[in-house]
Specification:
This protein has 6 helices and no strands.
Length: 126
């Protein structure tokens, strides 16, 4: 795959993850007002735990920084993959109308996994 395109996608994903991660601490992008009640209740429950929402934010920030500085990229992709999958599932099940940012993150992540597949393929050999 083209290294320049891969690097641009890595930087773009890193920036998005850092912004969304910091938002979990500073709340400068409030949740949409038209969010379905079930989605709102789920988000509130994560926030009410006192740690889960911030932990997710920390994972987003750490993986975003690693992608930006181009260090431990496979590790960054692995730690953000479950978060990204949950973002997609949240939107598919509870708030499909606001799926676009999550879908973009998911698509960028899939591209980067494919671009770094040589580092992951040994995990699937017997």
């Amino acid at each position: 795959m083209n290294q320049k395109v891969t690097r641009i996608i890595s930087v773009l994903l890193g920036i998005m993850l850092i912004i969304f991660g910091i938002n979990k601490f500073l709340n400068f992008m409030p949740a949409p007002e038209n969010m379905p009640e079930s989605a709102s209740n789920f988000m509130k429950a994560m926030i009410d735990t006192g740690y889960l929402f911030k932990f997710i934010g920390l994972v987003e920030i750490v993986s975003g920084i690693l992608l930006l500085i181009n260090k431990w990229v496979p590790f960054a992709l692995l730690i953000i993959a479950p978060v990204t999958l949950n973002i997609i599932m949240f939107h598919l099940m509870l708030d499909v109308a606001d799926i676009l940012p999550g879908a973009i993150i998911f698509i960028l992540l899939v591209y980067l996994f494919r671009a770094n597949w040589s580092k992951f393929s040994p995990l699937f050999k017997s």
